[in-house]
Design a protein that fits this description.
This protein has helices spanning about 5-25, 25-50, 60-70, 80-100, 105-125, 140-165, 180-195, 205-235, 250, 255-270, and strands spanning about 170, 175-180. The protein is an all-alpha fold and about 270 residues long. The chain folds into two domains: about 25-135, no CATH class; about 140-274, no CATH class. Strands 1-2 form a two-stranded antiparallel sheet. A hairpin with a 3-residue loop joins strand 1 (about 170) and strand 2. Helix 2 (about 25-50) packs antiparallel against helix 5 (about 105-125) and helix 3 runs parallel beside helix 5 (about 105-125). The longest helix has 29 residues, at about 205-235. The termini are far apart.
Length: about 270
């Protein structure tokens, strides 16, 4: 099977399986989102460890992110200060492992980067849970689907517009393939999808177009952010978990980056009292 075929099959499986898990029930929805965020934390910690010649405990940020996600578990009745408890335990564990196992020259950056990874995936990325409603079916994931669809359209539009018209590099030091013309194509594609899905997401057309534009920018920014991380770590992909696509953070980097902006946008503009 060719690489393109593998990418297409993987994308179809991800789309169908992901939507099924999100729409099936609240528990499967939580499990899928937690898995994505936790694996993403493991991937980034693993890259940081390799770069710093200290590949220790990449499971710790993943475990910490999963623990932070527990507050989103349907029926959760844990302590109100659970996030702070997780933060204290995780930071203490990072410090203990660093001073026991890691060379003194990279102790500080290793702790700082892993603490950032936990915060980025567990708190910033954790706003993905807030893009769903407490009901099953497609209606319960309308904000999430709207956000994902706009980002996917922006990514695809940028790719095809860049190949057809791309001449001026957008950020050559971070991504050799991104062009300004491609970014414009991504913006147009995102706006088109936003206009089509505005009713489904309970947004007025102007609000949907505004969010579509925001997500187009977030798609580029999120991708460049992870590209910068990979460039720093001297890695092509965050991992090889998804055949033909690389890692979780290679596929969902823009979605994680856009999540807080999506949450804020729906808080401000949704017509169904989101």
């Amino acid at each position: 099977m060719s690489e393109l075929s593998v990418r297409i099959v993987s994308a179809i499986v991800l789309l169908i399986g992901g939507l099924a898990a999100l729409a099936l029930n609240l528990q499967s929805r939580w499990l899928l989102m937690t898995a994505v965020l936790s694996i993403g934390a493991w991937e980034l910690s693993r890259l940081a460890g390799r770069k710093l010649v200290s590949p220790y405990a990449p499971w710790l940020p993943g475990l910490a992110v999963a623990a932070l996600c527990l507050v989103q578990l349907p029926g959760w009745t844990g302590p109100m200060d659970w996030e702070w408890m997780v933060a204290v335990v995780a930071l203490s564990a990072l410090i203990a492992i660093a001073y026991a196992k890691i060379g003194i020259t990279v102790v500080a950056p290793w702790i700082a980067i892993n603490a950032f990874i936990i915060a980025y995936l567990g708190l910033w990325g954790g706003t993905l849970f807030d893009l769903t409603l407490p009901e099953t079916g497609m209606a319960g994931i309308a904000p999430f689907v709207f956000t994902l669809a706009c980002i996917a359209a922006a990514d695809s539009g940028a790719y095809f517009a860049g190949r057809a018209f791309g001449k001026r590099k957008l950020a050559p030091e971070l991504s050799s393939g991104k062009t300004r013309e491609g970014a414009v194509g991504g913006l147009v594609a995102s706006l088109l999808v936003a206009s089509v899905l505005s009713g489904y997401a309970h947004l007025s057309l102007p609000a949907a177009l505004l969010l579509g534009a925001v997500f187009a920018v977030a798609s580029v920014a999120g991708d460049l952010f992870i590209s910068a991380f990979k460039r720093w770590a001297l890695a092509k992909d965050t991992s090889h978990i998804i055949p033909g696509h690389g890692g979780v953070m290679d596929r969902f980097d823009a979605l994680v980056f856009a999540a807080p902006f999506a949450w804020l946008g729906f808080k401000l503009f949704a017509e169904n009292g989101f």
